[in-house]
Structures are given as structure tokens and as C-alpha cells.
Amino acid sequence: MVDENVMIDLETLGTESDAVILSIGAVWFDRYNVDESEGYYATLNWQDQLDRGGTVTEGTLRFWLNQSRQARDAILNKKPMRLEQTLIDFDQWFNDTVKKPRDCLVWAKGPQFDLALLRDLYRRTRRPSERRPWITPWPYWSERDVRTALMLVPQKIARAKGSVAHHAFYDAVYQANQVRRFLISCGGFAKKPTQETKVETEDLLS
Fold first, then answer.
1. Percent of residues in the chain assigned helix, strand, coil, to nearest 5
2. Which backbone phi and psi does 112 adopt, to 5 degrees?
3. Which among 49, 61, 77 has a CA at the least distance from the CA of 15?
4. Residue 61 half-sphere exposure, CB side, CA atoms within 13 Å?
5. What is the pTM of this model?
6. What confidence tens digit (pLDDT) does each residue in 100-126 have?
């Protein structure tokens, strides 16, 4: 099994594949740790997405009105970058962070939502100076579903102190920790564990 993973979480203004994306959070993880220090977070330009056919639903707007002030503040950016630049930065983060981009597993809750929305956004956006469609920096076969993993082996863990629910980065970190525990519990990492890893695994599952 692969020992390199990325967790991605989105906050959006709808539930369809063309919904406006408010923010992207992502974090790299392996069997040893979730690397929060090298994570990715960005708010996206709403108008750029609306101009490209992005959609908004009333129910999702009502959902955001009922969230915490911290969660709402995290999606607001008075001077957001142009959409193309945000996607360039995200591509750069992914390729700089992941050692083997075509071998890394990319997780989301679930791929048919977060990753499908990202694929559609890339499709509706053109890389500057290029006519060909823009695609995500990972192949489709790398995508994995958090919900399926947690259905098979539930992992109930507490959120870290200071973590904000419905904040794309904090949610990505929380889900990465859940999947990391899942992979350890089912032997889903590549290398044989060292003595230190065995002790850590016993602590995680105790």
C-alpha cells in the first residue's frame, strides 16, 4: 500500500458539481504524522466562479448563517486572488509537498463531492496562455473516500484544541487523523512498522 496521502476538504455554497467553492484546505500525511505545518488553505474568488457558471443554493446560504463566527470569517476575503492564480498556487503546493504525485492517495469526504467539485472547477477554468482544459494534479485512480473507510472501521477522535468546525483546513486535518488511524488499524501502510511505530499503534488503538 501507498505510504503518502493528501486530505482535501472544501467549503462551498452548494452541493452540485458546479457549486461555488468558498475555500480549499489540504494536508499531507503518512503513517507517522499529519503535517499541519506544510498544509494548504485558500479562500476562492466567488465572482470569478459565478462568471464561469458556478452556482449557489439557498439552503447552503442558510447553513452558513447558522455556523460559528470563526467559520464564517474564515471564508471571507475582501481581496481574493484571481481564480487562476489560486489554482496555480494549489498545484504548486501539491507538487512541492508530494514526493510522488502519481502514487499519492488523495482522500476526501467524499471524492464524489469535494474532488468532483474541484475537477469541475478546473475544467471551467483555463490555465493562463493555454487552451487545453486544466486538470487536477493527481490522476483519478488515486482518489479515496473517507466515509467508506470510517464505515468499515469507525474512528471517533476528539478535535484538536482550537479547531474550528466547517473550516476547510481544520476539517482536512481532523479527517486525515481519522484516516491515519484507520490505515494503521487495518495494516494499510506500505512498510513494516518499526518498534516505535508498534508502540504508537498500540497507543492509538488502546
1. 45, 15, 40
2. -75, -10
3. 61
4. 4
5. 0.85
6. 988 999 999 988 899 999 999 999 887
